[in-house]
Amino acid sequence: MPQPREWTFGMHRAWFEPPDVLWMRIRGETSLEDAVTILELYREVGRQQRFFLVTDLSEATSVDLKARDHVSWNFQTEWFHGAIYIGAGLMQRAVATSMSFFHSLTGQATRPQHFVSTENEARVLIAEERSLLDR
What is the pLDDT of residues 14-67, one digit of tens each? Predict the structure, then answer.
């Protein structure tokens, strides 16, 4: 099991909270360079264990198209238990939903994804999802 850890890149921050949550706070624009770093974090944690990804998008402004494509084409759903997005706007929800739909069309496994307003709601969802995994 990974230990608590923290990363900072650009205006963004990520931290691992044991036993299985990778938190990300995205601020401002997400560049291709940021997306490469994000994917490396997913891979690093995902090689050790599956995890819940919680991404706070409440201060995010935009995602470079090349950045979005890089993550979409290179992430692996087996790294994740699921994804939870905090504060996602309509466009961010549409992009996340379309990426999930695209992966299902290409035969890749999909994982649950949820949209919430607060960190507390995210923590409640994680507890619910964990109880489903334990069944």
Answer: 999 999 999 999 999 999 999 999 999 999 999 999 999 999 999 998 888 898
DSSP state for residue 79 in the 8-state scheme: G
Measured in residues, the chain has a length of: 135
Residue 90, C-beta contacts closer than 8 angstroms, at least 6 positions apart? none
What's the half-sphere exposure (Cβ side, CA atoms, 13 Å) at 99?
A: 21
H-assigned helices in the chain: 32-48, 65-74, 90-105, 119-133
Q: Tell me how far the alpha carbon of residue 101 is from its chain's centroid.
A: 16
Domains of the chain: 5-133 (3.30.750.24)
pLDDT tens sequence across 106-129: 666 556 788 999 999 999 999 999
Provide the pairing of β-strand 12-17 with 113-116. Answer: unpaired
